[in-house]
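User: My collaborator sent over this chain with a note saying "see what the structure looks like." That's all I know about it. Can you take a look?
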Amino acid sequence: MSIMIDLAVAIMIIAFALVAVHVSDLVRMTIAFSVMSLLIAVSFYLLGSAYASAFQIAINAGAVTILFLAMIHVMKRRRLD
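Assistant: Without extra context I'll predict from the sequence alone. Here is the result:
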């Protein structure tokens, strides 16, 4: 049963990574990247590494996603000016 859960999480990680690469809208790309990062944190937790999972959530799914959204906001503002 554990192998099936690991395989499902791995397939979802790959699917969201492909979505993040192929989507042309930057906000949707950021959301796909954030979900992919959360799924990577889930896989770390399933492997028994709770600290790596917490750092993955804090850094990639949290801070990097906020930086991407801030960059998108600044780029849209500059296009309007």
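A starting point for your reply to your collaborator: Residues 2-80 form one domain.
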